[in-house]
Amino acid sequence: EDVGEEVEVKEMEPKSQKEVKNDDNKPESVDSPTVSNRDENEDQEMEGDEEGSDLGMKFLVTDDKEPQSQAAEEGADGVGPKKEITDIAAAAESLQPKGYTLATAQVKTPVPFLLRGSLREYQHIGLDWLVTMNEKMLNGILADEMGLGKTIQTIALLGHLACDRGNWGPHLVVVPTSVMLNWEMEFKRWFPAFKILTYYGVPKERKQKRQGWTRPNAFHVCITSYKLVLQDHQAFRRKKWKYLILDEAQNIKNFKSQRYTSKSTVYSQHRLLLTGTPLQNSLMELWSLMHFLMPHVFQSHREFREWFSNPLTGMIEGSQEYNESLVKRLHKVLRPFLLRRIKMDVEKQMPKKYEHIVRCRLSKRQRYLYDDFMSQATTRETLASGHFMSVINILMQLRKVCNHPNLFDPRPITSPFITQGICYTTASLVLTALEYDPWRVSAACKLP
């Protein structure tokens, strides 16, 4: 194996003492990767992704009843890609919760004593799953439906590491820019013991925030956006993070993008993805997420594309039994690393939903803009033509009027606290009289 692949194996199993064979067939111990080795080989890691071994693909595209000769090709000692993926998937499958309530699922993880507030039963089960995956040195995807509290479960996980293991970070949480402040507020509400660094601002402000952040316990959790991690990539690479958490993980669905590369080369002991839509339309996007979690397992995307996405008509041309077998093998590998609950599963634990519809009248300016836009000749002609996209555009303009009139007809923003300079004209004699200073004249007369 090349050096980049070896580093990834070390990253995934820092506590294990398994024997790994190199090209010279000399066993060497696998320990936590050093910072120097990590920095030297981070660039080689992404290059090895496309040309690396197709670890994991033989398990997907071969049947369980294949002859023993194919197993012999994996190695004389019986240790090969198929066995590794089978072992990892089986280990993750055994950790999946069996129910949605504490009565049906076995939960061993207590709620952190510093966590303010109470977790619902399914959230407590999700916390137990996250903690167990962490103990087994496995990364995963928390894919609960929107509104079920993925943020709270993530905070509870970091709180458990701090309270029960003394692991206070630092952790890196990468989120969309629009929810950065929301994550900060949730951390302060649920676990105020954490020191939160919200990393944003212009380059000068971000540089000031980075001053002293290498000191121990300078902060516990850093919250930033995808864009800033890309811009300040070198600074984040130099930091050793305990947990790398990505919210809205579909943002890294393109493994060829700079955004994906910048996140995958950030050093972290563990990784967690949060998303509400894990099953992407493109299987290559799904592979990107799994490769981010387990780069030493899902290395080659070429055979993944050939068997599952090249194109989807390949499955259509095959028999129904063949297609079902491919899907089963795919799910057999991916499902154990993903926990997804929908509202229908836990609806008994959700509070009752109340829906109130408040109808508001248009203001005078809104009514004027609305009627003026509808009375224009171009608007009437567009509506008469019946062209779908043109009618949709008219509806979008009317929605702007209803939301706020300045969205449709912008006005200059003025403040009552800012006044403009007063300009005036006057005669030269009057100006001389106004500028006359008798004290200056009297002082000049006293001079010898």
UniProtKB/TrEMBL annotation:
Residues 131-296 form the Helicase ATP-binding domain. Keywords: ATP-binding, Chromatin regulator, DNA-binding, Helicase, Hydrolase, Nucleotide-binding, Nucleus. Residues 1-82 are annotated as: Disordered. Residues 40-53 have a biased composition (Acidic residues). Residues 7-29 have a biased composition (Basic and acidic residues). It is found in: Nucleus. Gene3D superfamilies: SWI2/SNF2 ATPases, N-terminal domain, Tandem AAA-ATPase domain. It comes from the Eukaryota. Its main location: nucleus. InterPro entries: Helicase_ATP-bd (IPR014001), INO80/SWR1_helicase (IPR050520), P-loop_NTPase (IPR027417), SNF2-like_sf (IPR038718), SNF2_N (IPR000330). Pfam families: SNF2-rel_dom (PF00176). GO terms for molecular function: ATP binding; ATP hydrolysis activity; DNA binding; helicase activity; histone binding. GO terms for biological process: chromatin remodeling. One of its GO terms (cellular component) is Swr1 complex. This is Helicase ATP-binding domain-containing protein. It comes from Petromyzon marinus (Sea lamprey). The lineage of its organism: Eukaryota, Metazoa, Chordata, Craniata, Vertebrata.
